Amino acid sequence: MAERAARLRARYGAAPWHLVVVTAALVLAGWVALRLAHEATAGRMLLWFLGAVIAHDLVLFPVYAAVDRGLRALARGRVTLLNHLRAPALGSALLFLVFSPGILRLGETTHLAATGQDQRPYLMRWLLLSAALFLLSAVTYLLRRRQASPKRSDSA
Amino acid sequence: MPPKPPGVDTIERSWRSPLRGPWLTAVYGTALLVALPLVIITGLLDYVAYGPQFDQAFPTDVGWLRLPAFDWPTRPSWLFRVTQGLHVTLGIVLIPVVLGKLWSVLPKLFDWPPVRSLAQALERLTLLLLVGGILFQIATGLLNIQYSYVFGFDFYTAHYFGAWIFTGAFVAHVVIKFPRLVTALRSRPFGAQLRTSRAATRPEPPDPDGLVATEPGPATVSRRGAVGLVGGGALLLAVLTIGQSLDGPLRRTALLLPRGRQPGPGPNGFPVNRTVAAAGVRPEQTGAGWRLTLRGGGRTMTLDRSALLAMAQHTAALPISCVEGWSTRQAWTGVRLRDLAARAGVPDPASARVSSLERAGLFRTAVLASNQVLDPDALLALRVNGVDLSPDHGYPARVIVPALPGVHCTKWVAEIDFQGRTDG
Fold first, then answer.
1. Choosing a second label site near A93 at 20 to 30 A (CA), which of A100, A127, B115, B326?
2. Tens digit of pLDDT for each residue in A7-63?
3. Domain check: are B80 and B227 in the same one?
4. What is the rounded distance in angstroms from the CA atom of residue B411 to the CA atom of residue B396?
5. Which residue out of A32, A60, A112 would a mutagenesis test of the B interface target, given it has the greatest number of B Cβ atoms within 10 Å?
6. Cα-Cα-Cα-Cα dihedral of B156, B158, B161, B165, to 10°?
7. What whole-number distance in Å separates Cα of residue B355 and Cα of residue B279?
8. What phi-psi label fits residue B410: left (phi over 0), alpha (psi between -120 and 50 degrees) or beta?
9. What pLDDT does A2 receive?
10. What is the pLDDT of chain B when averaged over all its residues?
11. Nearest to B145 by CA among B89, B95, B99, B96
12. Domain membership of residue B114 as a residue range
């Protein structure tokens, strides 16, 4: 018995319970896929499912990694400055990512039908929130610098 | 082992962050392990709240994935307010944690060789379901609550079945990785990590999963900073989302969401779900000629609005809560549904089907279970906050029932059909 388990382990690459667990997840997903296959919009759902992975792993990640590289170049080794740029940039980007449907006014008619209001205010609010995040970060950066070098602030 | 194709080494060397490693991944993973089950359970409860036993939970045909049906309770009256509010708010708040977790494991995507064994191949397939599942659920959920249906498929179908694909992969991932998570968390004490400065931050020792960079650069952020950045993002989203579920001036803090805005001043100035114009209900239908039709036990009767106002009036402060994550509590006044049931000759109904003047729309009718008709606070509301309902809030009459999803609190009611216990 132990020998058979060891053989399975060698061939499969993991313990038998591993096979049970991943098979269960794959069977469930397969069953859902078969069930949805006859839906007219099944192709679009699959496209969005796989597209979400591609959009994150191969678009969003390279983009934010590249922006971070740009910020590093801008800060030229001043790590505190770099982080005071990174934090508000991340906050602003996060808000855009989550609330882009309103900010970009995608769905004006459904929004109006559901709420009786248009989507106009969101863009300006996002810009103001982003500006507030950068301002807050700039102010704390200046305060930290003053604390770190009291001599310079005395002479200023 | 076959030779590595060009570029693999370059990619491997380009992972420079000294923070990536089992400990940080385990911290983000623990947050998700604790919070995601809450999102899953409240989501499933929302489905049950819609009443699958009356075929009014969408999608209706779910085969083996049918949930155990039970009568959705009317108490506490804020039950649905909490389940849908938690589902949507927590779902939004967790987005930075999901992004942080994915950042921490991204090098694994470019693992070489891509497949070492059958076990690894199958596991990577479940990871595709896990990552695709969570991103799909986040994307469809976010678009739905912001009324942007750019995806072009049915939201309910996609979000329900997407949830099952994700949950299956999530359970598998937790079962497989839980020992790793425990080892990683034990490898360095949490408190000490949070006290380590940036200058003292060192990479973790090489790990079997290959999360730790082979050529890490100097730390520009401490681990405390990395946890704080993700936590700060979650806090920022929480502050901008929670207002949807609050009444009073704090509601406006949901600055970027549709339900942070009040549609107007006055007693009727609270969020509307579906305007009278969108429902296609015309003023002549709701004027003096409007009649409420009551059916029960084979009999039919009609009442006009003054007859309803002449019946015993009851006032109840009840929340109206939408599955899209917003809610508001208002004081509703009207006739108890159980009084109307008695008037129709069915004092102990098994259910009641409420129909709206609305001709189209998924929610033009709703079935209420027995407990939802008989609750003393279940009303056919005629007034709100001391004044007549506005057209957008359902004038001349709307249903309001404790803990009932908002879309089943039918507006512009035309007819209530009470089913007796023996009618089938």
1. B326
2. 989 999 999 999 999 999 999 999 999 999 999 999 999 999 999 999 999 999 999
3. yes
4. 8
5. A32
6. -140
7. 13
8. beta
9. 81
10. 95
11. B89
12. 8-245
CA distance B165 to chain A (A): 5
For B82, the token pair is: 């909490």
Which whole-number Å values give the CA distances from A34 to A28, B159, B222, in the listed order? Answer: 10, 16, 47
- String of b and e for B170-185 (b: at least 16 CB within 10 Å)? bbbbbbbbeebbeebb
Domain match, B139 and B188 both: yes
Q: Same structural domain for residues B320 and B415?
A: yes
- Pairing, β B351-356 against β B413-419: antiparallel
B360 vs B169, which has greater pLDDT? B169
**CATH number of the structural domain spanning residue B358:** 3.90.420.10
DSSP B369: E
Q: Is the pLDDT of residue A154 over 80?
A: no
Where helices occur in B344-412 by DSSP H, the ranges are 370-374
In a domain, B15, yes or no: yes
**Residue B415 parent element (H or E):** strand B413-419
Alpha-carbon gap, residue A19 to B70, rounded angstroms: 35
Residue-wise pLDDT tens digits, B303-356: 999 999 999 999 999 999 999 999 999 999 999 999 999 999 999 999 999 999
Out of A14, A32, A72, the one facing B164 most closely (by C-beta) is A32
Structure tokens at B39: 């999102």
Q: Which residues in chain B have Cβ-Cβ distances shorter than 8 Å to A121?
A: 261
Q: Is residue B270 included in any domain, yes or no?
A: no
* Residue B411, in any domain of the structure: yes
What's the one-letter identity of residue B47? Y
| CA–CA distance, A81 with A74 (Å, rounded to integer) | 9
Number of domains in chain B: 2
What is the enclosing helix (H) or strand (E) of B230?
A: helix B223-241
Please choose, from the candidates A109, A106, A85, A83, the residue with its C-alpha nearest in 3D space to the C-alpha of residue A96. A106
**Amino acid in position B110:** F
Are B138 and A101 in contact by the 8 Å Cβ rule? The answer is: no
- Residue B408, classified by CB atoms within 10 Å of its CB into exposed (0-12), middle (13-18) or buried (19+), is buried
- Four-residue CA torsion sign, B387, B398, B85, B81: positive
- Cross-chain Cβ contact B172/A22 below 8 Å: yes
B255 occurs within a structural domain: no
